[in-house]
Amino acid sequence: MGKRILVVGGVAGGASAAARVRRIDEYAEIIMFEKGPQVSISNCSLPYHLSGIVENSKSLVLMNPDSFKKRYNIDARVNTEVIKINRKNKTITVKDLVANSIYEEAYDKLILSPGASPILPNKVEGINKPNVFTVRNVEDIEQINNYLKENSVENVAVIGGGFIGIEVAENLRLAKYNVSVVEFANQIMTPFDYDMVQILHKELVDHGVNLVVNDGLAKIGDGFIETMSGEKIAANAVVLAIGVKPETRLAEEAKLEIGETGAIKVDSNYLTSDRDIYAIGDAIEVYHRLLHKPTRLALAGPAQKQARTVADHIYGKTNRNLGVIGSSSIHLFNLNAASTGLNTRTAEVAGFTYDSIYIMPTDKVGLMPNSNVMHFKLVYEKPTGKILGAQAIGKGNVDKRIDVIATIIMLNGTLEDLKDLELTYSPMLGTAKDVVNHAALVALNQLHGQYREVKVSQVRELVENDACIIDAREKKEYEAGHLKNAINIPLSEFRNRLAEIPTDKPVYIHCRSGQRSYNMVMALENLGYTNVYNISGSYLGINLYEYFNDLVTGREKIVTAYNFN
Amino acid sequence: MGKRILVVGGVAGGASAAARVRRIDEYAEIIMFEKGPQVSISNCSLPYHLSGIVENSKSLVLMNPDSFKKRYNIDARVNTEVIKINRKNKTITVKDLVANSIYEEAYDKLILSPGASPILPNKVEGINKPNVFTVRNVEDIEQINNYLKENSVENVAVIGGGFIGIEVAENLRLAKYNVSVVEFANQIMTPFDYDMVQILHKELVDHGVNLVVNDGLAKIGDGFIETMSGEKIAANAVVLAIGVKPETRLAEEAKLEIGETGAIKVDSNYLTSDRDIYAIGDAIEVYHRLLHKPTRLALAGPAQKQARTVADHIYGKTNRNLGVIGSSSIHLFNLNAASTGLNTRTAEVAGFTYDSIYIMPTDKVGLMPNSNVMHFKLVYEKPTGKILGAQAIGKGNVDKRIDVIATIIMLNGTLEDLKDLELTYSPMLGTAKDVVNHAALVALNQLHGQYREVKVSQVRELVENDACIIDAREKKEYEAGHLKNAINIPLSEFRNRLAEIPTDKPVYIHCRSGQRSYNMVMALENLGYTNVYNISGSYLGINLYEYFNDLVTGREKIVTAYNFN
Questions:
Q1: Among all residues of chain A, which has the CA nearest to that of B528?
Q2: Which of A24, A422, A526 sits opposite B26 (nearest CB)?
Q3: For the segment A459-499, what is each residue's pLDDT rounded down to a tens digit?
Q4: Half-sphere exposure of residue A300, counting CA atoms within 13 Å on the CB side?
């Protein structure tokens, strides 16, 4: 007779753990309890039903109880809520939500994978209206879709600019709804720094999404919402996506230890404070490899690894636990965006001594038709050159570059390692000097003081203070649009125009993407100029950073409800 | 007065070295000598002019001498051949090919970047005909293009199935020419193993390319070529791409040391045996990080790194030299293919103790519309689990996965490291358990003897010897096409049909992509079966491997001139 393994929660982590136990032990008795009507759903894909990219909501269900039984001999019980853990007897109390009956099941090992539930805002008038939704399972997304269609809804408000909120907003917009996104912070998508995220802000606005930042939901009225600042936004339906909280009720009531982040505390093998109870997924806290402290990370990849580790550990095999770094990606209209590790905000909060560089090379050989600019930001520790994190946004395969950085971080690599990587190249797929090699070279120059730069976020102040800004692009490029107050001295002319470049005050140089200005900065340094700075992000970056402002002349200004603060 | 730096060769490495010298030293006098009429061309992009993907051949020239002068204050002399190095005087003898004059230039440091030239086959009748071409520079590609158009050529033969040959063949085919590829070896694209390359063979054939392997060029006739086996193939033009040889004449005549591979020998900073002469690019031999010996590697990425190292070294800065691993990629019709490090052939030749796994997961969440199967092969050392190399082929971003492997290799990572990588994921861009994580898990299972597999190349013998092969797919899948002699016991039924599975002889199991058969193998092992093997590559892999054969029933057979041996 095999072990009796009970699993609470049949999505992502739970289902993975159950399947892995079966592969290790054909004799184990495995029962999986799921409160909802489905197990093994593709929860990350839920938003794509709203646009019809995933047309049939049934395809979001990857396996049903019958196939769990047939393939894995796993007893998957849906509509079945585990309401209590009786640690002393090693049993759980289970409620069959359909039959409305209660029974007990004994376990040798118990695996908790209850997930996290959407946070609902406090004290918001109208929050209980039938047109207010959250997104957690297939039923939720079907309900939204049905409501919008049956009521011929035109205007939808999404509250919260995290992954779920933005993916929901994108898919609703693709389905031609008028979509507003309301975000309490000054930006959406916190894995990205404020400068990088402007590219995503612009992408939303360019695709007709009404983006409101620095504002929160105050009231849900009839056909509108009202924000904290008093703005009324047309909305016949509201999707709440302001965050999730770990499902800890069962664990708390069983007096399992809860960690400082409010999630279930586990050891390196995901054992809770009870040696027969494991916990995995969104309900637990994990160790952050770079921050050296517990954190919460509601991502599918780590949950799968945890599931495997738990199954292995039940059968005596340990896995090393390297902690998490937080790697994620998103596809948003025409852009891909990805990030890993720390950004400058999280590095700052954690007290790191760090610096960053921001480059924008092409992602493929420039003369290839599918070549596009990639915005790439690299964060590293000073003086060690240890890679702390990176962010990339563009039309091409940004996730490839971020995965390389994630690999470097997991292997404790430095800028030198990144510089030396020998990566694949062909003109249709990349550049001979890959984006990440390029980033490492620029960062090493900066780390070793071989050149200095100012950030794109500092440019406004420079312009307002009448600093000497040189635009190193050719005259035609300058005339098509340029920074206020910038003087135009092309790289191709500067050696004959040195007299125009002051030596008694700081000089800030940019071009289009930073390559020409870098050459000019190096030459001027060589010539004895001691106060020369490259403007990180260059004209492309300034343009994006100040897109909703008027720092740049000559470009077309978009008209939008979005008010950039 | 600055240093006098002379550079021989103005493409790729040479141009990069010159520009880097300028960034380090504004006072240096830099002269770059190029035999051809252009400097700084995108040589990797040359084939794309034949299809019109790069419509204007002038765009293949990235910078001209005038812009080198204006931007970098570099004197780039085209149509200028360096004919002699006078090491004693530290001068070079230069021939102006237009003025037909000869002069000398003195150097403090000399950088050789002469590249490699196409190899011409010996003693082939007709080799000097005007319709026989090679591909090295913009003029070559313009000549081919013009000849084909002016002579209304319909049939073109490409001799050689390496990168250049295949890219030329693809682009000619895209331009609607009838294209034959003749390759002397039994496969094209040697970075790929024989099993993996069948996918590329099929891609060529599927797109109407007449692929001939195991055969060489014997004669170029009028309107046809004749192969060594006597086959006549219609061809009004011939492109020779059987390989390149390093341009060592200058170095040899100057008595610079030549390495065992026949290329210029250099030290860790790319200094030749003369301490004032450096050499970089396709003309030199480099150190292979995994093979621990010199090799030749005609790739653009390493050449750029060498250029930078040389410029730095001239100014007293050393760079560490990690050696090369050989990372490359190619786009071929609808497929992308990439590889890094060693394949099983090179690992075998080098005497490694190694093994490999071959998986074919989807590259994105299966229900996403752009999801496709990715063929992924991982080669690792036994018993250390050190990653030696990988190959990936598919419609999606295979290069992302190979770049991660290249990063792991450069940082001396193992299967454990690969398993633990936390990579980016979103449904439109990847899977929660990334392809590379998945590969590491399978390889670890194999390394630790937790399951055993046979290779796709062994299946034919198993079938012919009436081995017990179980097809674990569902009945409907089996009926649509299956392996000869395979018996169908779906994973969903096997627990009730154990009596049909023999215990007295080896059992080989496959399904569609290896996931279901893996589960069945593990279960049978658990149940006491001692002689159970998973068939690596599974049905998808067998189908591709035996595509030109008849091992599989029920699938549509393509009709092609290609004769699979």
A1: A26
A2: A526
A3: 999 998 999 999 999 999 999 889 988 999 999 999 999 99
A4: 23
| Nearest by CB: A410 against B367, B397, B417 | B417
- CA atoms of B424 and B432, how far apart (whole Å): 8
**Mutation target vs B (from A422, A431, A441, A516; most B CBs, 10 A cutoff):** A422
Give the domain ranges of chain A.
4-43+57-115+245-314, 132-242, 328-447, 453-553
Q: Would the ipTM clear 0.85, i.e. be above it?
A: yes
Q: Which residue of A has its CA nearest to B410?
A: A421
Residues in chain B with CB shorter than 8 Å from the CB of A369 are 53
Q: CA B283, CA B266: separation in Å to the nearest integer? A: 10
**CA nearest to B328, candidates B356, B298, B357:** B298
CATH 3.50.50.60, applies to A328-447: yes
Which CATH number fits the domain B4-116+245-314, given the four candidates 3.40.30.10, 3.50.50.60, 1.10.1020.10, 3.30.70.100? 3.50.50.60
> Does B12 contact A at CB distance below 8 Å?
yes
Report CA-CA distances (Å) from B401 to A341, A408, B408: 19, 14, 11
State how far the Cα of A301 lies from the Cα of A319, in Å rounded to an integer: 16
Q: Does B484 touch chain A (CB under 8 A)?
A: no
- Crossing angle of helices B194-206 and B163-174, rounded to 10°: 20
* Residue carrying the six token digits 């069948």: B198
Interval A488-528: pLDDT, tens? 999 999 999 999 999 999 999 999 999 999 999 999 999 99
Indicate the pTM of the whole model.
Answer: 0.96
A552: helix, strand or coil? strand
pLDDT tens for residues A74-110? Answer: 999 999 999 999 999 999 999 999 999 999 999 999 9
CATH topology agreement for domains A132-242 and A328-447: yes
Q: Which of residues 382-441 of B touch A (CB under 8 A)?
A: 397, 399-400, 402-404, 406-408, 410-411, 413, 416-417, 420-430, 432-434, 437, 441
Q: What secondary structure, in 3-state letters, does B397-439 show?
A: CHHHHHHHHHHHHHCCCEHHHHHHCCCCCCCCCCCCCCHHHHH
Domain B132-242: CATH architecture, name and number where available: 3-Layer(bba) Sandwich (3.50)
A105 near B CB under 8 A:
no
Chain A hits for B421, Cβ within 8 Å: 403, 406-407, 410
- Class in CATH terms, A4-43+57-115+245-314: alpha beta
Residues B553, B482 contacting (CB under 8 angstroms): yes
Structure tokens at B125: 């009748």
Confidence (pLDDT) at A543 = 85
Angle formed by the axes of helices A515-526 and B13-24, nearest 10°: 50
- 63-92 of A, contacting B, C-beta below 8 A: 67, 70-73
Picking from A70, A403, A422, the nearest residue to B404 by CB comes out as A403
Q: Is B303 on the interface with A (CB under 8 A)?
A: yes
Strand extents, DSSP E, A108-149: 109-112, 116-118, 132-133
Q: What is the least distance, in Å, from the CA of A530 to any CA of chain B?
A: 15
A453-553: CATH topology: Oxidized Rhodanese; domain 1 (3.40.250)
Compute, in degrees rounded to 10, the torsion defined by CA atoms B291, B297, B302, B304.
160
- Option in A59, A406, A522 nearest B422 (CB): A406
Q: How many Cα atoms are found within 13 Å in the side-chain-facing hemisphere of A191?
A: 25
Q: Which residues of A touch B437 (CB under 8 A)?
A: 301, 305
Q: Would you state the structure tokens that stand for residue A2, as one six-digit string? A: 């095999």
Residue among A303, A320, A367 whose CB faces B54 most closely:
A367
